[in-house]
Amino acid sequence: MNKSLRKSLLIFVLGALVLSGFFAFKAKNDKLFAIAKNIDIFATLIRELDSYYVDEIDPDELVTIGINAMLEELDPYTTYVPEEDSDDYRMMTTGEYAGIGALIGNRGEGSMVIMPYTGFPAQTVGLKIADYILKIDTTDVTNFGTAEVSTLLKGPANTPVHLQVKRGLDTLEFEVIRKKIAIKNVPYYGKLDEKTGYIKLAEFTTNASTEVRNALVDLKSQGIERLVLDVRDNPGGLVNEAVEIINLFIPKGREVVKTIGKLENVNYTYKTSKTPVDKDIPMVVLLNEHSASASEIVAGTLQDYDRAVLIGRKSFGKGLVQTTVPLTYNAQMKVTTAKYYIPSGRCIQAIDYLQSRENNELFTVPDSLRKVFYTKNGRKVLDGAGIEPDESVDRKNYAPISYSLVARNHVFDYGTDYFYAHSEISDPATFAISDADYENFVKWLAGKEYDYTTYLEKSVEDMRKNAEKVDYYDEIKAQIDSLEKRVNHSKEQDLVTNKEEIKKILSQEIVSRYYFQEGMIQAGLQDDEDVMLARQYLKEPSKIKSILTASSK
Q: Tail specific protease domain: from which residue to which, for each copy (predicted)?
């Protein structure tokens, strides 16, 4: 290459670099100018609104509404946390707060104790499920919402709070000393049979991995040789806790998850760093449509390493990572900064929010665009749309009468009445209400409202609405009327037809009065179809092996 050409190329390259730097600088400056301009417009708008608007306005409230509306345009996970909500946000991430240790809910008459947490102040002083809270210290809270009541119940640890509650016809007084409350990530673990352990993982807050480790070690000391890990209905949480939980079952030095985003400091590869507790124990992981984020990291990584069989339903599909960014005046922003990728290389994010914004409608990744990846043993797995189980189990559909009895709180109220009429029951694994108890429940229902529409009735109703639009409706009306009469339900008959299903629902509710959250979970395992299939597979190692080898897919 001659000197003249080399010189020309050098000038061209240097010129290109200068121009690219100029345009990059200009683009950056243009964006900064746009940000400054729009902030100035927004501030001016609020100021002029405050001056000119006919009624008094609350600038804080208006700005918060504006911020929330702006962030909602991006994705559901990018959120603004004002200073007054920082304690609640901290509780969501750490699982810790100072209070009385009870779940509070709202019923027609006011706020009620829905569930006291075992071993915490509310339970130890004697508060019961279904106690209505009338006063907190000197404040009448009968017309307060749940959030307001919960705020009043919280406070510094080791401080007293005086409660007045209504229990049936009685008004009771309690002095409760607030304590530091750590909500359990593992609300229950135990043995399904002599050789099969079960761990319910409900959250991924601080110490989730420690709780799972402790449960696993304890179960192994009791002689288990196989394990069911249940992450159904677990919305996720801290990624590092998910990594530590995976490390309990796979060797040191294995890649677990990568986070990849726009900024270099959010790009990170998480690897296992410790010796596992048990890298060989046969495992089943249960998941469903409400298993998200960290739950999907655990389930997906164990699937990618062919370490566990997944049973249940396809998971939620949240492959986005959020980071907390501090703002001025002690506010915070939780912002999506990256996507995560599990060991096979797949990202399981189901909704493309960029496409959704551009098309002005929710865009889920279609099957035709899902890419194929491979597990360690060569099994095919797909990206997008969540983690698919190795063995699917249809979601249990309850009868309309069962839904109605639960939704109208008749199951809850009967459970409370049963509790005060019976001083004790058998253990959660064996308790079931008798036929005589069920007949008492049917009598108890007399005069109570619990109407509902069956699937057939809804179909006939839809048929009639469509038929009314056609010219010959009058000719077929009599036939539709006849069909409607034939499918109309009888509540009395439905109570007979669905007796066994309703008895199980009632039994689980009653167990909660005596054994709280742990008992409810244990009672629900007895006829859980996902759990039954997991036990069946774990008892036949050949089935597990056939699923986890490439030839099975």
A: 169-354
